From TrEMBL:
Cofactor section: Zn(2+)
Biased composition (Basic and acidic residues): 281-290
Keywords linked to the UniProt accession: Hydrolase, Metal-binding, Metalloprotease, Protease, Signal, Zinc
InterPro entries: Cell_wall_metabolism_enzyme (IPR050570), Dup_hybrid_motif (IPR011055), M23ase_b-sheet_dom (IPR016047)
Organism of derivation: Nostocoides veronense
Domain M23ase beta-sheet core: 354-451
Protein name: M23ase beta-sheet core domain-containing protein
PANTHER family cross-referenced by the UniProt entry: CELL DIVISION PROTEIN YTFB (PTHR21666:SF288), PEPTIDASE-RELATED (PTHR21666)
Transmembrane intervals: none
Signal peptide positions (record): 1-30
CDD domains documented for this protein: M23_peptidase
Keyword Zinc assigned: yes
Amino acid sequence: MHVGRTRRTARTVVVAASLVSGTLALSVVAGSTARADLNDDKRKVQSQITALQEDMDHTSAALAKANAALQDSQSRLPGAQNALAAAQQAQAAADARNEQAKVDLAKAKADQAQAAADLQATQKALADTRSAVAGFAAQLYTEQGSGTLAIALETSDPQALADRMSMTDVLSDLQNSTLEELSTSNASLLADQDYLAATKAKVAAAQAATEAALADATSAANAAAVAKATLESLIAQQSAATATLATEKAAEKKRYADLTAESDRITAKLAAIAAEEKRKAEEERRRKAAEQAAAEEAASNNNGNNNGGTTGSNPTSNPPPVNDGGFLSAPVRTGWVSSEFGWRMHPILNYLRLHAGRDYAAPCGTPIYAAAPGTVVSAGWGGGYGNQVIISHGLVGGEALATTYNHMERIVAGYGAISRGQLVGYVGTTGLSTGCHLHFEARVNGAPQDPRRWL
C-alpha cells in the first residue's frame, strides 16, 4: 500500500552515482563490442536506479532520513577509526622524538659542563705556569743575568762551585720545562675554548630540537585527542541514529498498518457499492427478460398456434471485461509516471509491500480530471491518503470499477454525477506523502488492480 512519496533524496542520488561510476569503470574497454557492453551496463544501472527511486518513493521522509543518518555515521566510522589510529601512531612517534631530544639535550649540556670544567682547569694550570715563569724572570732579573762564568769567579771552593753549577743547570731545565708547559697550556686553552663554543652550539641546537619535538608531540597529542573525540562523537551518533531508526521503523510499520486498514475500509465500501450495482443490474436484467418473455407470449397468443418458433432473442449478456485498456483516461495532462502498480521490497524494512496504484509526479496545483464518467461516492479526508475523491464508474464488462484520487492539495468535485474530464481537484502532498504527486488507484469490485489494464 502506498504510504507517500519522497523526493529524489541525496542518498538515492549518491547510490545511483555510485552504481553508474562503478559500472562504467568496469565497462570501459576498446572497440565497438565494448561500447555495446557499456550501453547494456548503463541500461542495467538505470533500471537499478529507477527501482531504487521507486522503492524510496514509498518510504516516509522521517524513516529515510533516519536510515540515511545511520548509513552516514556507519560510512564515516572506519575513516574516523583509521584517523585515530594514525593520530595515535604519530603521537607515539612524536613522543619518542621528544624523549630522544631530551636525552640529546642532557648529553649536550653534560658535554658543555665538562668542557667548561676542562677550560677552568686549563686556565688555572696556565695561571700557575705563568706565575712560575714570572718567578723565574724575577730571579733572572735579580741575578742580573749571572751566568756560569760569574758563578765560577765568585766561588773559590771547588765543591761549592760544582753544587752551584748543578743547581743552576737544574733551575735552567726547570725554567725550560715550565716555558714548554706554558706553551702547551696556551694551546690547550685555545682547544678548550673552541670545544666549549662547540658544545654551546650543540646545546643550543639540542634545545631548539627539544622545543620542536615538544611542539610536535603536543600537536600530535591534540590531533589524537580530536580524532578520538570525533570517533566517540560518531559512535554516539551511530547509537542515536540506530535508536531513531528503530523508532521510525516502528512508526513506518504503524503508518503502513493504518493505511492498510484505510484501504480495507475503502475496499469494503466499494465492494458494498459493487454488490448493490450488480444486484440492481441483475434486477434490471430479470425485468427486461420478463418483459421480453411477456412480449413473446403475447405475440404467440396473437398469432395462434404458430409452429415457426419464437421471433424473440435471448437477453443480451454483459459486455466482456475490458482487457485491452482504453476505458479510463489519464487523470493528469502533465507530469510523468514515477511509480507503477506492484509489489515492492522495502529498502529499509526489508519486506514486501503492495503499491496499490499508479503515481503521477507533477507540481502541486496541477489539475486532476475524472478518468471516466461516474458518480462521486466519497470526497474528503482519507487518512493516510490525504484529501481523497472516490468515483464509482458502475459495471464495466461485468465488473464494478471505481477510481480513487489521493493526496490532493484541494478537492473540487462534490458528491454525485461527474463526467469524463471534469475537474476533480489539484495535485498535492497531503496525508502520508512527502512530495507533490497524484496517487491514482483503480478498484475492481473494491479491490485494487493495476490501472494500466483500464487506461
